[in-house]
Amino acid sequence: MPTDKMMSAKEAALLVKDGDCVAVEGFVAMNYPEEVVCAIEDRFLKTGHPRDLTLFYTGGQGDNKGHGSNHLAHEGLLKRVYASHFGLNPDMGKLIVANKVEAYNVPLGVQNCMLRDISAAKPRTITHIGLGTFVDPRQGGGKLNERTKEELVELIQFDGKDYLSFRLPKINIAIIRGTTADLAGNITQEKEGLTLAVLSMAMAAHNCGGITIAQVERLAELHSLNPRKVKVPGILVNRIVQASSAELHAQVFGRPYSPAFASELRVPLGGVSPLPLDERKIIARRAAMELRPNMVVNLGIGIPDGVGSVAFEEGIDNFITLTTEPGTIGGMPAVGVDFGAVSNMECLLDEPYQFDFYDGGGLDLAVLGLAQADECGNTNVSKFGPKMVGSGGFIDISQMAKKLVFVGTFTASGLKVHADAGKLVIEQDGKVDKFVKQVDQITFAGKVAANAGQTVLYVTERCVFSLTKEGLELVEVAPGVELEKDVLAHMTFRPIIKGQPKLMDPRIFLPETMGLSNNKQ
Hints:
Blueprint: H1 9-13, E1 21-24, H2 34-47, E2 53-57, E3 78-83, H3 90-97, E4 102-105, H4 108-119, E5 124-127, E6 153-158, E7 161-167, E8 173-177, E9 180-182, E10 187-188, H5 198-207, E11 211-216, E12 218-220, E13 230-232, E14 239-242, H6 279-288, E15 296-299, H7 305-314, E16 321-323, E17 328-329, E18 332-333, E19 342-343, E20 347-348, H8 351-359, E21 365-369, E22 372-374, E23 379-380, E24 383-384, E25 387-388, H9 394-400, E26 403-407, E27 411-412, E28 416-420, E29 423-428, E30 432-433, E31 435-436, H10 446-451, E32 455-459, E33 463-468, E34 471-477, H11 483-487, E35 502-503
Helix pairs in contact: 4-5, 4-8, 6-7
């Protein structure tokens, strides 16, 4: 095995040729090979090369401040992009909206399957994930602008059932990241917060006849690494770049290293402060009422992560197992730009295996964000007018969870509410109605879920809806809320109403804990 694999990031950037398909690993602000990607950007800005690249990147790689895949968002550098999420890469979103680059939004779990299928030289990735959503060719096939012409997805059938068939790119360059490399290129990840799909990505590049570049923090003597800790074998790694600074190899953008995120130690969690009793906590409390002992749960980012805080405050966090899509099992998930990292986890899976679990229906409950919903129960979290966000792992998680709770405020932009003596007081409504006749883009397909018998709730601060085969049914209203004035007047469709909706539990609107640990569930 060659042992002369060391080179600088600048030299590694020269390996990327015009027209190459480049795959880059990373999740939000974690595990990103920042120095190598920066060197590619620098080369392009100085020489105009490489150009016309196809970029395949998993997860929402960035921090909304210029890091991550934002470095590659230059007209001419990119010809085509396959990605699951663009919300943390605003410059990439602008390129797509301006029709400057071909772009496909692929569900994160499907991307992970694609990498393994490329490795195994399979002709397509075939999956049920995405049926009925904007990824379905009957709804646009994941194409994000007029420039994107080629069909990525086909509708096929097996045994009378519909499936989606995704075409697979040939990967020329894989750029991954680890902690330690020996001189043969064996890679470990002991200080990384996640393992992700680095093995699948490196194997895909190798079996396509391409090369893998691994950015690492430190070097070890030849064959000195514990083989049980080697995540990517040296036979799959062609070049090694040792990071020149901690800043370019931070565990999380803006955070050099957290031993808790690397499971080096367990930290006391007794200092978690209760959320203030605002609309976010009201919604999280109602969602937390759907928790049952021994549930395996996924919480999305934003209002959904408040459910974890409520569970901790109520003393029921030890009765459930929280998971995150990049592979964590148990522990306390981080929020914000640290999303994906977990303190005190029980187990860390490679991301593709986590999505196998999710896509096969392993989740008991998922609590996800709600930006728009329509009369059919469709939801949208991926595109709003000219703003390109992407689906991330939302489609995989939402489609197959046994129970699904969407959470979000009833209106947006200017909403002011407060709780008073067990009731909700609406001081000022938002300017934007979120329950609309038809969503801008279908990220969750209500009819597909209803026909499959999936249990779905839509929880807001003032009311709760349930999904039926006929559409959305209004099932609960908050104490203090007037049905016509505060609910129906802010919807562009009329929901199903069977008799008088129930009142939301008054405990939700009181300052003391709700006593969920005492519930017999």
